[in-house]
């Protein structure tokens, strides 16, 4: 068996095994797993609205997964996508609410998106600087930065930007709103799926090309595999560490822009709803490969919305268990395959 085929077969078989185990878990709750599967398919892929919801959730997951995947190629584990999403979301909301109405959407939307990307990149860069200057483990620093982001965004919201008697900021300017596919083309009626999906796919393809088709990507991967050897070869691992974390944070900022500009239209407490942590799972399921992450995000988005659709049959927490079982099986099988190869 050639190596690329083997690499694709291992996660595929792992997911099939996970489906069987998950069916057993559902059966243990006293529910027919085939009935649950049929309901999930009918309410997601069998419904234009449901398909739109899956695509919308997959878009944010794709951005947050890339925030984890890019640093991962330098052996950096960015746990801070959740915090980067939060600061990106409040930056997008504040900037989009203050834009003059005279701006066209072609100017207003990029400005708000740039604010979200800058906030996310800046927040992730803090962990990179701590890593470079003081050798602080990025897992610890990004976890702590998640708590700080929650506190900072909460302070800004409730003390400066929240509308009276609400838990959300002022609505964004109309010219900064990203129209949905439903409004633009009549696709996926009433769902929040929007052209941010195109940007997410383009970013995945761009990161793939950067990592595997450019000298910069080769240097990034070399810095992660052998930093001392890379340094002796004239590569600067510290610079690549900073750039990778900043790019990851900017990707999280794009996910935040999708939530604020393409859905809510304002920032509210808890609006990221764990999307950053789900992005970690999405990236791990795809072995941090930028192209595989597209399929992983779609699968996770389907499980996320599918869990809501069958909540009357099976508790949504069961789907969280199912997701964890799937990821554990894929990671374990991949690690075992590498050890035996």
UniProtKB/TrEMBL annotation:
Record key words, sorted: Cell membrane, Membrane, Transmembrane, Transmembrane helix
Transmembrane portions of the chain: 54-73, 109-130, 139-158, 195-212, 291-312, 318-336
Protein name per UniProt: ABC transporter permease
GO cellular component: plasma membrane
The keyword Membrane appears for this protein: yes
Subcellular location: Cell membrane
Topology in the lipid bilayer: Multi-pass membrane protein
Location, primary (coarse class): membrane
Lineage: Bacteria, Pseudomonadati, Chlorobiota, Chlorobiia, Chlorobiales
The species this protein was found in: Chlorobium phaeovibrioides
Molecular function, one GO term: transmembrane transporter activity
């Amino acid at each position: 068996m050639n190596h690329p085929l083997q690499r694709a077969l291992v996660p595929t078989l792992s997911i099939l095994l996970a489906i069987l185990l998950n069916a057993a878990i559902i059966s243990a709750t006293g529910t027919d797993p085939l009935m649950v599967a049929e309901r999930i398919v009918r309410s997601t892929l069998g419904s234009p609205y449901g398909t739109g919801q899956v695509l919308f959730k997959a878009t944010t997951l794709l951005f947050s997964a890339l925030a984890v995947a890019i640093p991962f190629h330098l052996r950096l584990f960015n746990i801070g996508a959740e915090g980067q999403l939060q600061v990106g979301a409040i930056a997008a909301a504040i900037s989009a609410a203050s834009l003059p109405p005279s701006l066209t959407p072609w100017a207003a939307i990029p400005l708000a998106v740039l604010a979200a990307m800058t906030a996310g990149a800046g927040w992730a860069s803090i962990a990179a600087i701590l890593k470079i200057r003081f050798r602080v483990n990025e897992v610890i620093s990004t976890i702590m930065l998640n708590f700080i982001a929650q506190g900072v965004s909460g302070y800004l919201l409730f003390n400066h930007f929240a509308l009276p008697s609400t838990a959300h900021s002022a609505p964004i300017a109309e010219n900064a709103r990203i129209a949905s596919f439903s409004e633009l083309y009549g696709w996926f009626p009433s769902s929040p799926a929007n052209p941010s999906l195109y940007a997410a796919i383009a970013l995945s393809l761009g990161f793939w090309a950067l990592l595997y088709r450019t000298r910069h990507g080769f240097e990034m991967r070399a810095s992660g595999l052998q930093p001392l050897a890379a340094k002796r070869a004239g590569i600067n691992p510290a610079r690549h560490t900073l750039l990778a974390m900043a790019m990851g944070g900017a990707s999280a900022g794009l996910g935040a822009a999708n939530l604020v500009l393409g859905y809510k239209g304002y920032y509210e407490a808890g609006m990221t709803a764990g999307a950053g942590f789900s992005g970690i799972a999405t990236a791990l399921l795809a072995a941090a490969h930028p192209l595989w992450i597209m399929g992983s995000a779609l699968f996770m988005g389907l499980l996320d919305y599918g869990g809501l659709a069958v909540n009357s049959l099976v508790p949504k927490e069961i789907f969280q268990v199912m997701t964890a079982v799937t990821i554990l099986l894929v990671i374990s099988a991949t690690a075992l395959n590498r050890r035996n190869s």
